# Entry
Amino acid sequence: MKSFYQYITELNLYRGVGDGSDDKYITWYTIDKKLAQGYADKRNNSKLITTTINLKKVIDLFRDNYTLTPSSFVSIAIKNTDISTIDIEQGKIIRKNFIDYFGPMSREVIHYWKDSKSKQQTAIMLKFFGFDAIRITEDGIDTYGILN
# Structure
């Protein structure tokens, strides 16, 4: 039997996949079946995947066109982390690598996972700070990037 906590944190999610789907570092799901089907319809050999997942620590990056500097992105992650649980020196290295890779400029959050290397850098940083997912709102619908 599920605990009350499991019940209230459990999400039923959908993902539209097909040729060209890239799940290596971040796998995107949505709570909306229609939105997921829209992504599937854009691909050859498409299908709709349904899953149920319990997320423990999600970083909320608001909406898909929200702009953020790499430094601010790391700051949000740090503010939502109990720093007594991390290696501070390793955290400084990860922060520096993330900022060096993306540069100082503000960008829409979707650019932090626009290609495989960006996904990798973002996943490394967020996983270090204990996150298991990203939440954004796309067209008013909650969408989750599960860190692999």
About this structure: The longest helix spans residues 88-102. The chain is about 35% helix and 30% strand.
